[in-house]
TrEMBL record:
GO molecular function: hydrolase activity
Taxonomic superkingdom: Bacteria
Keywords, alphabetical: Hydrolase, Signal
Protein known as: Glycosyl hydrolase
Organism of derivation: Dysgonomonas termitidis
Signal peptide: 1-18
């Protein structure tokens, strides 16, 4: 009996350990978990040998896939160019897909060259279209003397008259289009006794050409509003892939919508009448107003909504449907579009956001460049794409990453790390670098370059240590691609207030640039909610209609649940949306109105009838005279909460805030999984965390996973005042993954906690420095009495080189048993590989440049080696000073971060090497 009992105990122990091992391991690494990169094909001047070389270099470094975008070519290589989608081009694509598959990678491709979609097959009829309005004045009894013809000389060959409407001063509207002859002469006399304003609508063309087009891709930009033109554009891909018997790529990509001035399509008036219920031509004067008056604002809003609907249906949805017929997917940057960004992002398989510029993080030793552009892709903007993915149940939110992070040749991995951390906490989980340029192995340095990229390529010196950064990204994305989103709130995107607030021209777009300036109230609400320790996703009117209630939670059509719906001071709201919100509240939803109730419906059609129904629905909501004090009211099975201060409103709905954000100032994202939740925490300000941190979820146990090192261990947790607390240690610039287990007590090794023991040693004199590699070559060995930039050592080659220097120090050390020691490098320009006594101690590419070395130290003499790699900035500046012609590209041969012609010969030497101070700090292990 005892033997049987022992066997059962051993079996149970084995099963528990096996189960724990599964849930306590790092997630499986897939190619999607690795970072991907946009791969610029200059002139599509590629060959099989160098395709293999490029792919192998990227795969070896840790990149999971490439996204091909052909662009303009290299001067003098014209005979090697391959026209887009020709049999030779398709052969190169097939070879690329085959090689990528061999290497465990995958291939996406831009569905065009450069951007936006377009090319030589786009006829003038299918090209981007614009409205041209001309106005004439007539008195009663008079005949128009001038011809009704377009005045713009560029438009005379293509523009045609669509409508001519006469508006009398008494409000009469007369369609006199058929009174205009083929020569433009108007055969019509204005009725006596009134004055008339005549508005002519000509449908013309933007004449926009594809930007940065590759050979075979030059031509007009597509009219994205024209359903037939869009299908004809897709047809060329059907033919190219079918004729060449090549499988479709992993995914098709569409870059940011940059169709400038394309504000019309031939059937827009018919589409408008069908969708809005009245004729837009009856209100041309109001459409051409600035939107300041009531009717003008409503007409312009209706126009903007109609254009957005047409774009979504005729292009974005049609594109995804077409891709699915070919067993592939779509990846889209909706920003820049004249539409509700949420609905466009939601209409594709992978919504993609974009960073543009650099954020001014307050992190000690974070490299700051004097040449910088403020990042337009802040969290309030990044969340459009991730919100669309979350509410529709899409697995991935991708990002165009590090666009114009700094000036060319000056971007460090240490600058990249906090930017990508912020993207992760904003919902991104599938990073694409912007980007890498195909370059032949034998191309002279700096190789083939595209002007607007961060240059993740083998010819960039940062490539040497980039694999450590790529591993960091992979570890984080392996978690962020698992489970499901777990944000607290849905925030209503008040699109009609936004449209009403965009005065001036009737056509407007939503590019990432200046979004905060254009939408200050909405962005302010987002930041207030997040600063109070809660996270959120945006939701549109369209997706409120498909939202349901499950156990008192709001459940979107993608299956994601939320605690409450917040309306951020919305004034205008469609009747259908309001009625749906009221119904959700009756069924059990918590709805929060901040600052006010909506007061009106948007649009012009049947206005008074809709207003009357709006008033009837509003009567079903609690009667709140003042929003100054938080008020909680029962509405059916749910609650209506009102108030002015988010700090007071949000706790009233029962949501638990994350104090890591609200009190410590960090950033995080939380996702739920089968056994609990997992977090990604990052501290992007000058604040240290070394304390118990209250979580917003309950847990029986928890684990830390360090994405920098791959280490993991059981975290110290406790219950206090009914909440779960975890002991956390983070320095400025650091990040960590936490996995919680709601009902499971896991069995695994504990996480190591340390605190300074007070003793530290600074390694000053006695350094030797020699170069592992350098261009130009430097054979000298330097004995250093103090650490500093190698550009200050007096050797002129050190002011202009790109390379890796090995710093060596021998020192005696007495190591007590069971103690840990941390090596702190201070200021590093720009990344460092560390070895202690010949053993690897890690690659440090971001602040804080620190690593634990206690297990590698020995009693007696120790040898410390630090290989530091600098930026290519000094070498390229020297090239310009010496007049070396490396700008060999046909179109843009490098512009500044402000898109102006630039040379780099005015740059002062960029600090390079190990600047220090280098210290070894004694650590004491603690048990919280």
């Amino acid at each position: 009996m005892k033997k049987l009992l022992l066997a059962v105990i051993l079996l149970i122990t084995f099963i528990n350990c096996t189960q724990d091992k599964g849930i306590t391991d790092w997630p499986e690494v897939t190619k999607e978990a690795k970072p991907w990169t946009r791969w610029w094909w200059m002139g599509s001047d590629v060959d099989s040998v160098n395709l293999t070389y490029n792919l192998e270099e990227m795969g070896r470094a840790g990149i999971g896939g490439v996204e091909i975008t052909p662009i303009y070519g290299v001067k003098g290589r014209e005979s090697h160019y391959i026209d887009y989608l020709t049999p030779k081009w398709m052969q190169m694509l097939a070879f690329t897909e085959s090689e990528a598959s061999r290497l465990g990678m995958a291939v996406d491709m831009n569905m065009g060259t450069g951007w936006p979609f377009g090319g030589p097959e786009i006829t003038i009829e299918d090209a981007a279209t614009k409205a041209i309005f001309q106005q004439y004045e007539l008195k009663g009894g008079q005949e128009l003397k001038e011809s009704v013809q377009v005045k713009d000389d560029k438009q005379k060959e293509v523009a045609y008259l669509s409508k001519l409407i006469a508006y009398s001063s008494k409000g009469e509207k007369l369609d006199i289009t058929d009174k205009v002859g083929s020569d433009g002469k108007l055969i019509w006399i204005a009725p006596a006794g009134d004055n008339y304003n005549l508005v002519a609508l000509f449908i013309g063309k933007t004449f926009q050409q594809v930007k940065r087009a590759a050979p075979g891709g030059q031509g007009y930009v597509l009219n994205h509003f024209d359903a037939d033109a869009v299908q004809r554009y897709f047809g060329k891909f059907d033919k190219a892939f079918s004729d060449n018997k090549i499988s479709f790529p992993h995914s098709f990509f569409n870059d940011s919508y940059e169709v400038y001035g394309g504000d019309w399509t031939p059937d827009l008036l018919d589409q408008f009448e069908r969708r809005r219920g009245y004729k837009l031509q009856d209100y041309f004067p109001e459409l051409l107003g600035d939107g300041a008056t009531g009717i003008s604002a409503r007409v312009i809003c209706d126009y903007r909504e109609t254009v957005g609907d047409i774009l979504r249906e005729n292009f974005t949805q049609a594109w995804t449907t077409w891709a699915h017929l070919h067993n592939t997917t779509t990846k889209n940057q909706a920003h820049g579009s004249p539409a509700n960004l949420l609905d466009l992002y939601a209409a594709v398989d992978i919504p993609e956001c974009e960073s543009f510029g650099i954020t001014d993080f307050d992190i000690p030793y974070l490299r700051k460049d004097s040449i910088r552009k403020e990042n337009d892709g802040d969290p309030t903007t990044l969340k459009y794409a991730s919100s669309a993915a979350h509410i529709t149940g899409k697995k991935y939110t991708s990002s165009e990453t590090f666009t114009w992070l700094t000036e060319h040749f000056r971007t460090s991995l240490s600058q990249c790390k906090p930017e990508i951390d912020q993207m992760f906490t904003s919902g991104v989980n599938h990073v694409y670098f912007h980007g890498s340029t195909y370059s032949p192995e034998d191309a002279a340095w700096p190789g083939w370059k595209f002007y607007a990229s961060v240059d993740m390529s083998p010819t960039n010196s940062i490539w040497r240590d980039a694999p450590a950064f790529f591993s960091y990204i992979t570890r984080i994305q392996s978690f962020l691609q698992e489970g499901a989103p777990d944000n607290d709130f849905l925030l209503y995107l008040p699109m009609y207030d936004i449209w009403e607030g965009q005065r001036g021209k009737y056509f407007t777009t939503f590019a990432i640039h200046g979004m905060r300036d254009r939408l200050p109230d909405f962005c302010g609400a987002v930041e207030q909610i997040m600063a109070n320790g809660y996270d959120l996703d945006y939701i549109s009117d369209r997706f409120i209609q498909t939202t349901t209630i499950e156990n008192g939670l709001l459940k979107t059509e993608g299956g994601t649940t939320y605690k409450a719906l917040i309306l951020p001071a919305a004034k205008l709201i469609p009747l259908e949306t309001l009625a749906r919100i009221q119904k959700l509240a009756e069924q059990g939803a918590t709805v929060i109105f901040a600052e006010q109730y909506p007061s009106d419906v948007p649009g012009l059609s049947n206005l008074e009838e809709r207003r009357a129904k709006f008033t009837s629905v509003m009567k079903l909501f609690p009667d709140i005279d003042s929003f100054g004090k938080v008020s909680v009211n029962v509405s059916g099975k749910g609650k209506i909460i009102t108030g002015n201060d988010y700090g007071e409103i949000l706790p009233a709905c029962g949501a638990d805030k994350e104090i890591f954000v609200s009190e410590l100032g960090g950033q995080l994202i939380r996702r739920k999984n089968a056994t609990g939740y997992h977090y990604f925490f990052t501290m992007l300000k000058n604040k240290r965390v070394d304390d118990w941190v209250t979580l917003g979820v309950d847990a029986e146990s928890a684990m830390f996973f360090d994405p920098m090192t791959g280490q993991k261990g059981k975290a110290a947790i406790r219950k206090r005042n009914g909440k779960t607390e975890v002991y956390m240690q983070l320095q400025p610039g650091e990040s960590i993954i936490l996995k919680t287990f709601t009902n499971t007590k896991i069995t695994t090794d504990s996480w190591n906690y340390y605190q300074p023991a007070g003793n530290q040693t600074e390694l000053k004199d006695g350094w030797e420095m020699n170069f592992v590699e350098s261009e130009p070559a430097i054979d000298e060995t330097f004995k250093l009495h103090t650490l500093g930039s190698w550009t200050e050592l007096g050797n002129n080659n050190l002011k202009r080189n790109m390379g890796t220097a090995r710093y060596t120090m021998k020192f005696n050390f007495k190591k007590p048993a069971n103690e840990e020691y941390r090596l702190c490098l201070g200021d590093v320009r720009e990344s460092a590989r560390v070895r202690v006594n010949g053993k690897d101690a890690g690659t440090l590419f971001a602040v804080p440049f620190e690593t634990n070395i206690g297990q590698l130290l020995v009693n007696g003499e120790n040898t410390l080696e630090i290989e530091v790699t600098n930026l290519p900035a000094n070498r390229i500046a020297d090239f310009d000073k010496r007049g070396i012609e490396w700008r060999i590209f046909r179109e843009i041969n490098f512009v500044s971060i402000t898109y102006k012609d630039v040379r780099f010969d005015t740059w002062n030497p960029v600090p390079s090497g190990l600047l220090g101070p280098v210290t070894i700090k004694e650590l004491r292990k603690i048990q919280p």
